Amino acid sequence: MEKTIAGKIITVNEEGYLTDFSQWDEKVGEALAAEANIPLSARHWEILKYLQNEQKNQVALSIRRIGKSGVTDIKEFYQLFPNAPLKTATKIAGIPKPASCI
Fold this sequence. Notes:
Blueprint: E1 2-5, E2 8-11, H1 26-35, H2 42-56, H3 63-67, H4 74-80, H5 85-93
Antiparallel strand pairs: 1-2
Helix pairs in contact: 1-5, 2-5
């Protein structure tokens, strides 16, 4: 399916996750964050870049792995992305929903 995000036509799946990462840019990330009612700070961007890098390296993402990453701890991750943090963060980052998310 297609969706207009930040003035661009983006291909997403039925859950709203981008299906082509090359369509993602920071404006798309900002628009996705706004849809989730999350004002992005420098800390948010650090975590989003970490998630994108892990995806690029084909590392399976989980809350536990993020908590042990040294980038953030689980408590801060939940504060920054309060509702379904891993699902929300990966959607904003433009990467697929992790297998560990229901």
